[in-house]
Automatic annotation (TrEMBL):
Residues 3-330 form the FAD-binding domain. GO terms for molecular function: FAD binding; oxidoreductase activity, acting on paired donors, with incorporation or reduction of molecular oxygen, NAD(P)H as one donor, and incorporation of one atom of oxygen. Gene3D superfamilies: 3.30.70.2450, 3.40.30.120, FAD/NAD(P)-binding domain. This is 2-polyprenyl-6-methoxyphenol hydroxylase-like FAD-dependent oxidoreductase.
Length: 470
């Protein structure tokens, strides 16, 4: 017998959210992480509106939101604001919170992570996956029915399964550093503003405990090797005379490289988050894209492992999430071009900024950046809501719809109760509130996406069978 149902390699936000989803469904899961302890490095710094919704659906948001540094009413497209105020969400803002805070809370919910496990070997057959780890110089072998690689952009899992990772190498080099300044910046959080990029850019964000995040790029960074250490002197030169750098806590280089795994599933091995796609980390899309992967995969893999999944359900993970990441990568590439230090690019930025100032264009980009425009291809008669995530609505009993997803199950939103002999329902508000005819009910998947709208029992049963069996 395998040691566990699912082995998740990587204890970042993607792996931890996935593991919690599996545990919620009663699946035995082990998370293996090569780092001996959490680094505490800030890493990503924002949760977009859809990520806030995802965490809220399971009741995991509040402790994270309480530690946020800011609630920004806008995101940005290459530094140009896109406003969230008019979006149909309970969270029309970007939560300024460090990745380390998200990881700490999700790991606390899970209870245990097998740390210090460096993956060195991977094999699979028709029954299980066998993973070999180096743990402090000792070889350790774990077996699982399925394995998910959530181990970042340099994924060992991806390499060991031989996954194709097409795309292009980076062309522009940038750097980021968590620093302490000799004098604290008290201006608070704000959106990046790249301004005139002909000589590069820099952006300073105050963090907690007197630290700040500096993001910068310029001629010097283009000349330095990708693996060259980011020195305090380099950070000071990028910062200029505005403040003196007292200490560099963490620093890293990155590029605008863009790659995506050709397939997210390789037999009993699946890829998620940065292991499946890398792009320029602009606008906080990386963390949020990974959380979306985990939320889509979690309930499907749980249903598959427990024998409740219809044929082909697990393969819809790739079918649904690959196009979402492809669109995000295209957006990141476009934004990357708009930050290149070049006079013609500066002219292009001015032209694009004028277009983004149009309210309709701004809203469309805001929905994309917020992660609220994702529509999955689900069967059924065409309806504007079908395949989209269901907005949180107030229910007649005074509760919210999102609170009904705490157990990770599908929800039938209905005002009549006529399908109660098929599946338990939730009394909803006037269906016209969400663009549905008065005699129709709405079936919502465990990840909050609408998978059926109708008024007849046979089609409801077919939709339910497409989500889980039994």
């Amino acid at each position: 017998m395998p040691d566990t149902d699912v082995l998740v390699v990587g204890a970042g936000p993607t792996g931890l959210l996935l593991a919690n989803e599996l545990a919620l469904a009663g699946v035995d899961v082990v998370v293996a992480e090569q780092r001996p302890e959490r680094s505490g490095q800030s890493r990503a710094l924002s949760l977009q509106p859809r990520s806030a919704e995802i965490l809220d659906l399971r009741g995991w948001l509040d402790p994270i939101a309480e530690q946020s540094l800011a609630r920004l009413p806008a995101g940005h497209f290459a530094g140009m604001p896109v406003h969230y105020g008019d979006l149909d969400t309970r969270f029309p803002y970007q939560l300024g919170v460090e990745q380390s805070v998200v990881e700490a809370h999700l790991e606390g919910l899970l209870g245990a992570v097998a740390r210090g496990h460096v993956l060195v070997g991977l094999e699979q057959d028709e029954e299980a996956v066998t993973a070999a780890f180096d743990v402090g110089g000792t070889r350790k072998v774990l077996t699982a029915r399925y394995l998910v690689g959530a181990d970042g952009g340099h994924s060992t899992v991806r390499k060991l399964v031989g996954a194709e990772f097409p795309g292009r190498a980076g062309r522009v080099r940038m750097a980021v550093a968590d620093i302490t300044l000799a004098s604290a910046d008290d201006q608070g959080w704000r959106l990046p503003s790249f301004g005139d990029t002909t000589a590069g850019f820099r952006h300073l964000i105050p963090l907690r405990e007197g630290r700040s995040r500096l993001l910068f790029a310029g001629p010097e960074q283009q000349e330095l090797a990708r693996d060259a250490p980011v020195t305090a002197a380099e950070v000071q030169r990028a910062l200029g005379d505005t403040a003196r750098v007292e200490e560099v806590w963490w620093a890293s280089r990155f590029t605008d490289a863009s790659r995506q795994a050709a397939r997210y599933r390789h037999g009993r091995v699946l890829l998620a988050g940065d292991a499946a796609h890398i792009h320029l980390p602009i606008g906080g899309q990386g963390l949020n894209l990974g959380l979306g992967d985990a939320f889509n995969l979690g309930w499907k893999l749980a249903a598959h492992v427990t024998g409740r999944a219809p044929a082909g359900l697990l393969d819809t993970y790739h079918a649904e999430r690959h196009p979402v990441a492809a669109a995000a990568l295209a957006s990141a590439r476009a934004q990357g071009v708009l930050t290149i230090p070049d006079e013609d690019v500066a002219a292009l930025r001015g032209f694009v900024a004028d277009l983004i100032s149009d309210p309709a264009t701004n809203r469309r980009l805001a929905e994309q950046q917020a992660g609220l425009d994702v529509r999955y291809a689900v069967p059924g008669a065409a309806h504007p809501l079908l395949g989209l995530r269901m907005p949180d609505v107030d229910l007649p009993d005074g509760t919210r719809l999102n609170t009904r997803f705490r157990e990770g199950r599908s929800v039938l939103l209905d005002t009549s109760g006529r399908f109660d002999h098929v599946v338990s329902h939730v009394d909803g508000p006037d269906p016209s509130r969400y663009g549905v005819a008065g005699d129709q009910a709405v079936l919502i998947r465990p990840d909050g996406h609408v998978c059926w709208i109708g008024d007849d029992e046979d089609s409801l049963r077919a939709a339910l069978a497409g989500v889980v069996t039994g």
